[in-house]
Design goal:
five-stranded parallel sheet; about 40% helix; globular; 23 helices; single chain
Length: about 650
């Protein structure tokens, strides 16, 4: 019956692609036995309770094989209809070209090769942390009665392309280091990419690579054998000490006239090839019509196992609830929502208004207060926590012997740290990841996926302007802020002082949106007019002259302090300056027109002051002369020398403003 059911799965996936006049038939045909075996023999899921917190997770890192996944979910009893399958790749359908969070049964959006792999590492890490927090400890080594409330596997289907991507190396190294034994990657080794077969572009020993990174590796010689694949998964599940890689040797486009060639990677099958494939499978006939018994066999296996396991788990929850304090039980119930009830504006931070300190130091104080109030606030830096000051004091480090810690030692793995944070957010955490702003470029694919999935991940980027100084142009960001601000769904906060840092974090924690906190290296005092509540408006009047307003300076971050110095200098020349602090451009642009207009009095000359690139600021000024920004790569020199060289020192800017009004 298994072979007949597999044929039905393949046939349905081919119908989906053919009806859409496009897709990726190559991996759909090669990986079908893998997904069939995984879902019918192993996946602990309950399609009627698709958000069950103790379900197994499946990440299709090879997102181009989506038609196969949608066919599998449909046949497994998830809430997808034949009409949904027919709408594959169509506008606003439940079955987009690559899997997207929001479709029932999809645990993460994928499509950028390697990202799904790394996101799955974050999900597997989340499982280990949740196990440590919520599971009862066995009374002794012989105790077999104490049952776990958190106990699930994370499975991945990866392609050759996934493992070519650098992020998969970063993530695999990280997973092996932490011994994430419930992570099982099924590698569809079909030996082909889009342009060529892998004997020309991907020839290293994958098994040796992963074994050197601490993984348990198996090889399935016959990728068509359900029995071989099943035995390999069983063995992988028994090894809880190491993450597992199962290399399944397959043939791309198995059964097609183009099998084994890059030509079958993507596109529409010819009518002749489609028909001969379905004849060979024994499922010829009208598209989307299924053989009843083999189709029911898939659904029955998935639902019966899943329903039984779910019922057993509910009994475990009842047992745990008897002993678990109400706050901890609420934590468990809240895992699917990432909610928080903290209001930072009501906390006394003991702010010293006379103290001059770096914004990193101020941010560290706020983060440590948050960590004391939120158990699921967790994260780390790409080997620069001692510089970005994002270490959570007294909260311990996560390592393979201790998942009670709250600090993740990512090493120099920027991109993986972002994707792992996405996996943690999908597991109920409020994660953060940090590095220098210039190195945010390493993380852009992961940041993009954070924003696309609308996940509550916070990126903390320090040393965020040309004032980094002597480290030189490789470390002096110019275009990064503009690039981040151009990303949909991403809120970029550049706070001026500790007051605005508190306001920014308050918005982030309440709104559960993707966010960046951008911090300069500069020391600042708390400014006289900053307001933590006004951060939610994106921009507000930080300082006004006593008389007429001749000039408006929009400033962000540490440059608000500079803007106030300019204001005082121009005051002696009888020029009135309004300083507008704009900690979050995205939030300001969401405000009403009347509020936005209220900040800019008629007739006043508007300037923008920010020590990064000008891209994106043109909408606020009448010409580029009014942009006090840095638009070329920097120099290796002191902060003072750099500012003077680019005419962004106080004297030069004062003279420039005077010449333009």
């Amino acid at each position: 019956m298994d072979n007949r059911s597999l044929a039905v799965l393949k046939g349905l996936a081919l119908d989906i692609i053919q009806n859409a006049k496009g897709g990726h038939p190559g991996s759909t045909l090669s990986a079908a036995p893998i997904l069939y075996t995984l879902y019918t023999k192993h996946m602990k899921v309950n399609p009627s309770m698709y958000d069950w917190i103790n379900r197994d997770r499946f990440i299709l890192s090879a997102g181009h094989a989506s038609a196969l996944l949608y066919a599998t979910l449909f046949l497994s009893g998830y809430q997808l209809t034949v009409e949904d399958l027919k709408n594959y790749r169509r506008l606003n359908s439940k079955t987009p070209s690559h899997p997207e969070l929001g479709t029932v049964g999809i645990d993460a959006s994928t499509g950028m090769l390697g990202e799904g792999f790394a996101t799955a590492v974050g999900i597997a890490l989340g499982e280990k942390i949740l196990e440590e927090r919520f599971n009862k400890k066995p009374k002794n080594v012989f105790d077999k009665k104490t049952r776990k409330i958190i106990d699930y596997h994370t499975y991945v289907l990866a392609s050759d392309g996934d493992l070519m991507e650098g992020i998969s190396y970063e993530a695999a190294s990280f997973a092996g280091n932490l011994k994430l034994g419930k992570l099982i990657v099924l590698y569809d080794a079909n030996k082909s990419s889009m342009d060529t077969n892998t004997n020309k572009n991907f020839t290293e020993s994958i098994s040796s690579r992963f074994m050197s990174q601490g993984w348990h590796v198996q090889i399935v010689k016959n990728g068509k054998s359900i029995s071989e694949i099943n035995k390999a998964i069983e063995k992988a599940k028994k090894n809880t000490i190491n993450p597992s890689l199962i290399i399944v040797n397959t043939t791309i486009g198995d059964g097609s006239k183009l099998e084994g060639t890059p030509k079958i990677h993507s596109g529409e099958l010819t009518k002749e090839d489609y028909e001969q494939l379905k004849r060979g499978l024994g499922v010829e006939g009208l598209p989307f019509t299924l053989l009843k018994e083999p189709a029911e066999n898939i659904r029955n296996q998935v639902i019966q196992r899943g329903s039984t396991l779910y019922d057993e788990w509910e009994k475990i929850v009842v047992e745990y609830q008897k002993d678990m304090i109400s706050d901890k039980y609420n934590e468990l119930q809240n895992l699917a929502y990432n909610n928080t009830e903290i209001d930072l504006t009501k906390i006394d931070f003991g702010i010293n208004y006379d103290l001059k300190e770096t914004l990193r130091e101020s941010n560290s104080k706020v983060m440590n207060v948050i960590a004391g109030s939120m158990w699921n606030f967790i994260g780390g830096a790409a080997d620069v926590a001692s510089a970005t000051l994002t270490y959570l004091n007294g909260k311990g480090d996560i390592d393979y012997n201790n998942f009670n810690g709250r600090n993740i030692l990512y090493g120099v793995r920027e991109n993986a740290s972002g994707a792992i944070s996405n996996g943690l957010a999908l597991s109920g955490f409020r994660p953060f990841a940090s590095t220098f702003m210039a190195f945010s470029d390493y993380m852009k694919p992961s940041i993009r996926m954070t924003s696309l999935m609308n996940l509550p991940v916070t990126y903390i980027f320090t040393h965020d302007s040309i004032t980094v100084g002597a480290d030189g142009p490789t470390h002096q960001p110019i275009e990064q802020l503009a690039s981040l601000r151009a990303t949909p769904n991403l809120y970029v906060y550049r706070p001026a002082d500790m007051i605005e840092i508190i306001g920014a974090w308050n918005c982030i924690l309440k709104e559960r949106k993707p966010a960046v906190i951008s911090l300069a290296k500069t020391e600042v005092k708390v400014q006289g007019g900053t307001n933590m509540l006004s951060v939610s408006k994106g921009a507000y009047i930080e300082a006004d002259p006593s008389d007429i307003i001749n000039v408006v300076i929009i400033a962000t971050g540490a440059e608000v302090q500079v803007a106030n110095s300019i204001k005082e200098r121009l005051k002696t020349d009888g020029i009135g300056v309004r300083v507008i602090s704009m900690p979050c451009m995205e939030k300001f642009l969401e405000q009403t027109d009347s509020y936005k207009d209220s900040l800019f009095p008629a007739g006043a000359k508007i300037f923008v002051l920010e020590y990064e690139g000008s891209f994106g600021w043109g909408k606020f000024v009448t010409g580029t002369d009014y942009l006090l920004t840095a638009n070329e790569f920097g120099k290796s020199a002191s902060k003072e020398e750099i500012l003077k060289y680019y005419k962004l020192d106080l004297d030069s800017m004062v003279e420039r403003i005077k010449s333009l009004i």
